[in-house]
Description:
Belongs to the inositol phosphokinase (IPK) family. By secondary structure, the protein is an alpha+beta fold. The protein contains 10 helices and 14 strands. It has a 7-stranded antiparallel β-sheet with strand order 8-9-10-7-6-12-13. A hairpin with a 5-residue loop joins strand 2 and strand 3. Helix 6 (205-213) packs across helix 10 and helix 7 packs antiparallel against helix 10. The longest helix has 23 residues, at 322-344. The protein starts with 10 loop residues before the first strand and ends in a 5-residue tail after the last helix.
Amino acid sequence: MAAPFDPKTFTAYGNAAAGHEGVLSDESGELVIKPCTAAEVSFYESALTTHPEFAYFMPRFMGTLQLQRTPPTDPTPLPGDNAEPGMRLKGKALETDQCIVLENVAAGFVRPNILDLKLGARLWDDDTKPEKRARLDAVASSTTSGSLGFRVAGMRVWQGEEASATKELLAPVEGKDTKVAELDQSENVLVFNKFYGRSVPTEDALSALRTYFVVPKAGVRPAAILPVVRAFADEVEEVLAMLEKKESRMYSASLLFVYEGNPGALKEALEAPPKSVKEEDDEDEADEEEDEEDEVPAKKSHALKVIDFAHATWTPGLGPDENILQGLRSVLRLLRKLETELAGSTDAA
């Protein structure tokens, strides 16, 4: 059984590719503590009790905490936290003491490469004020959110052991030269903020996925990443097939991709014998009976989760959520296209 939480040990969570400010992590790095709404808690609880097949693709829900919103113990600004006035790179922290406690999907990876794809052309729910609806619709109509039903909300891509000479990437946003990516020199991670996704035209959406998956500087080449891309495509297909049968509305939800960016660790994880769902369930039960010191964490090649349910609800009688399904179909089509491209490359032959 885990020790009680000590909020004094919480620190700013540094692996978020997108989302709101104010997300924390516990001392072990295995949990994420995120400010939330009552609606998001309700959606997690209802998924666990009445939609377990969907809950499988959600981060594991550990419960809630009430915290006094004081600055975290680590005040160091993270790469991408600084921007020109009026050019916020992440969503404003929610003004609430209620937090949801979730598994850290990026835990257990040596070098987690993270991609957040925001789903849907419509990004607001029925309670959203008209001015915010207009603003979100304007963003959607000028980005791949409108044309494809998804856009890159953020990425974190490890650039290898050697110091990278990657220059800051700039793109015109609202008439200014705005950073869309910058290097976190402490970990040699290239951090792409929300303006990167807004600058990607429809015809370059596949190129954006390629930037995430193929990282020659880090030794992640087509042959190495092909099985991961194939596995992600298979899992997106599962999520799509499941949600085609569900009646829900999930505005501004995201697909979260994480894969092992260290080529040696990735090779080791891919060569490990696969586990069945039953074996994983048996291990989960055994974990509750063993001391944490005796646990040997399994090596992971990748993880896919659906996240961000502040504007999500089950809607019996209204049919499937075509808004989110459009995005999932586009993501699946591009992943299959990338899979074919990687399989046909000379490196993957």
